[in-house]
From TrEMBL:
The chain crosses the membrane at residues 12-30, 50-69, 136-155. The gene is LOC108812493. Its main location: membrane. It is a multi-pass membrane protein. This is UDP-galactose/UDP-glucose transporter 1. It is found in: Membrane. Belongs to the nucleotide-sugar transporter family. UDP-galactose:UMP antiporter (TC 2.A.7.11) subfamily. Keywords: Antiport, Membrane, Transmembrane, Transmembrane helix, Transport. GO terms for molecular function: antiporter activity; UDP-galactose transmembrane transporter activity; UDP-glucose transmembrane transporter activity. GO terms for cellular component: endoplasmic reticulum membrane; Golgi membrane. The keyword Transmembrane applies. The keyword RNA-binding does not apply. PANTHER family: SOLUTE CARRIER FAMILY 35 MEMBER B, UDP-GALACTOSE_UDP-GLUCOSE TRANSPORTER 1. Pfam families: UAA.
Length: 332
């Protein structure tokens, strides 16, 4: 009976994690699309300062992680020092800024698809730089994802979707997304290096360190440089409280979503988290198409299916590999 009760509690916890990640990030996607396409106030002005979202997100997540550490963390003094995150903080500031800026040039579904192809630069760098040989099924996954994104980019976007964009320019939008992925790759590698050097580092410590440097860099960029748009963004929010409220909700969604991601990884592992976040991206595209008026053609839905088919196959390969490793451990 106790085992059944424990299993039921794990199912409830998993359901909580899935609903938390889905609701937080799907709603954040809706807000992100709203802020990039909506015209606010009687003067019908666009919020052109999308990089300001990164500063706001960094500040909110910095405060959030500090509160979580004070409430729940048991790390003590064994975690990584705050200054070790300075280099990852740079790429973590530049990368997401490029991803958000891409929404001026391509639609939200196109951005989500492009950012789902993270495996492509990883395998490319692994093959060219490190001489890593991948299996045939892994190349199939990459072919499906790369082919789906490429075909989606080549197909004609509806005039209704294009009319919502601030500055329609597909090549520039996709280029920004792929640069975002490249910077994310460096960020993830640096975070892994820090975690291996300081094993007692917890997720909240990483979140605090990353967002501390993110806040510093974004503050310098937005308010310290001559071309900085921080004051203009502040004035826009002051004149259009609806935009300021959307930005606050966007940031809170990011902080809450991070909370559920950490909970998922610590209780169910990274594979479960990858599965949840991948399906969330597909649902985000469906929500954008239905609710936000970004209609996709039948051919575009075919491209979406190709991409998420490849991602799903990749998840299956990882699951199969983990099962084989478990069997080997049991035999030994």
């Amino acid at each position: 009976m106790e085992a059944n009760g424990s299993g039921f509690r794990r199912i409830l916890l998993l359901a909580l994690c899935v609903s938390g990640i889905w609701s937080a990030y799907i709603y954040q996607g809706v807000l992100q699309e709203t802020l990039s396409t909506k015209r606010f106030g009687p003067d019908e002005k666009r919020f052109e300062h999308l990089a300001f979202l990164n500063l706001a997100q960094s500040v909110v997540c910095l405060v959030w992680s500090y509160i979580m550490i004070k409430l729940w963390s048991n790390t003590g003094n064994g975690g990584a020092p705050w200054w070790t995150y300075w280099s990852a903080g740079i790429t973590n500031t530049i990368g997401p800024a490029m991803g958000i800026e891409a929404l001026k040039y391509i639609s939200y579904p196109a951005q989500v698809l492009a950012k789902s192809s993270k495996m492509i630069p990883v395998m490319l760098m692994g093959t060219l730089v490190y001489g890593i040989r991948y299996t045939f099924p892994e190349y199939i996954c990459t072919f499906l994802v790369a082919g789906g994104v490429a075909l989606f980019a080549l197909l004609k976007t509806s005039s209704k979707t294009i009319s919502k964009l601030a500055h329609p320019n597909a090549p520039l939008g996709y280029a920004l997304c792929f640069l975002n992925l490249a910077f994310d790759g460096f960020t993830n590698a640096t975070q892994d290096s820090i975690a291996s050097r300081y094993p007692k580092t917890e997720a909240w410590d990483i979140m605090l360190g990353m967002n501390l440097w993110g806040t510093i860099y974004n503050m310098v960029y937005m308010f310290g440089l001559p071309q900085g748009m921080g004051f203009e963004a502040y004035q826009f929010c002051k004149q259009h409280p609806e935009a300021a409220w959307d930005i606050l909700k966007y940031c809170l969604c990011g902080a809450v979503g991070q909370n559920f991601i950490f909970m998922t990884i610590s209780n169910f592992g990274s594979l479960a988290n990858t599965t949840i976040t991948t399906t969330r991206k597909f649902v985000s595209i469906v929500v954008s198409s239905v609710m936000s008026g970004n209609p996709l053609s039948l051919k575009q839905w075919g491209c979406v299916s190709m991409v998420f088919g490849g991602l799903s196959y990749q998840i299956f390969l990882k699951w199969s590999k983990s099962k084989r490793v478990e069997k080997k451990k049991q035999k030994s």
